[in-house]
Amino acid sequence: MTTEPKAILLTGAPGCGKTTLLKQVVARFPGQAAGFYTEEIRESDFRTGFKLVTLDGREGILAHIDFKSPVRVGKYGLDLGVLEGPGVESLRTALRHQCLAVIDEIGPMELRSALFRQTVLQVLDEAPRVLGTIVQRESPFTETIKARSDVTVIEVSRANRDALIDELLRRIQSPRSSDWPPALP
Question: Is the overall model pTM greater than 0.70, yes or no?
Answer without folding.
Answer: yes
